[in-house]
Amino acid sequence: MKSTEIYSSTTHTWIVLGRDSQKSEKIIDTNQYLIKSNDEAIILDPGGIELFSSMLASLLKHVKLEQITTLFASHQDPDIISSLGLWDKALPHATLHAPWLWEGFIRHFGMDNIQYQSIKDEGGEIKIGKAALKFIPAHYLHSSGNFNVYDPKAKILMSGDIGAALEKNEPPMFVEDFASHIKHMEYFHRRWMPSNRAKNNWVARIRELEVDMMAPQHGRIFKGEMVQEFLEWFARLDVGSASD
Amino acid sequence: MYHQNDATLAIKNVVRVANIIANLDTILQEAKNLSLTAKNARVVALRAGDSAFGFKPITNFIDEFSELTIKTTKSISMLSSNLFEIALSVVRYSDFQLRLNIAAQYTEHTDIHHLQQQGRLEFIRTVKQLESAVMHLEGYFEDILKQMRSAEYIAVTSRVEASNAGEFSESLQSVSNFIAGAAKNIKHAINENLKEISLLKGALR
């Protein structure tokens, strides 16, 4: 699994882990994010069971196991958090922050040791070492209980499935040309996202934030102008295509 | 060292526990029917009066061991749900070990080695828990088996008593047949479970 540092300051660092060459082609490719600050670290959307081994090995290149104090699951999907039963053994003292809506569901992945910290619908905040992070509501995009993670200092928005692209092989880490990237995103957003109202609310909410980088859970990361281009494109997009 | 086989074996153990639990329902149902039969037989024996004099203590005896069987089966049910939990825990630890071994192929980091050791210890602890629960379970089943041997003996004795009960002979005969049938079904279910337990014990060794 590749790991790339996407932000670093005196207080904290963001690393994206993904493009796992060992994984089966039948499994959707995912981006996992590690934020480390001082002696603490959080994994955002730790991934599925199938990725656990390569994730663990890659993480240990950047942090010690005992530094990983926190996990975050944007929603309940298997590619997001089905590895929980294994992290529960590796990180028995960790806390999982995830939507309150999914607690009873996520516990099905196996959780004897890790503590579940519910995130309320309106969102919340968390500190990892010196990094202050915000949980931004992104309900119905696509999951009915869903959050993004915003880092006001790094100006990074971990956007979960929003901005996701389905590309084969190993695409580059960043979007280089927005227009040519649309074909990899359009079907995903039209089919997976159910609500135009939720989408428009989210766009308005994100426009109030300063975002230099938008980091989705699948595909390439949006940087600089690409973020605004995405917001404009997404605002215009009609979603919920299967209901037509 | 762990292999894919260990994980498969752990899953098979869960299936064996599931089979044992499924058989428990048969045992419990037959034991409840036995208890009901004992109560009916007591009424018939009372109506038959002196001609079924020898049948009354038999009905008390049936009642007694059917209650005992119900009680033992309920204890087994409680132990079984615990058994399920432990068997599942063995599955999870064995999967954890398997995934750690894969991670160890990517890196020689000491944390992985430490997790492997820790996981192995936890795995051994849960396997021992499972072994102990299985031994307990075996003991319970052997108790019921003894009760069923008594039931079969009673079925024979009650047949003799039933033949002396005049016009009530047929009703009491059917009670005897029912006891024999229920004891046979319970014994069959228990023998099936003892076979599963033997396989489970073999797998845990």
From TrEMBL, chain A:
SUPFAM superfamilies: Metallo-hydrolase/oxidoreductase (SSF56281). It comes from the Bacteria. It holds the Pfam family ODP. InterPro entries: Metallo-B-lactamas, ODP_dom, RibonucZ/Hydroxyglut_hydro. One of its GO terms (molecular function) is hydrolase activity. Keywords: Hydrolase. The keyword Hydrolase applies. Residues 29-218 form the Metallo-beta-lactamase domain. This is MBL fold metallo-hydrolase.
Automatic annotation (TrEMBL), chain B:
This is Chemotaxis protein. It comes from Pseudoalteromonas caenipelagi.
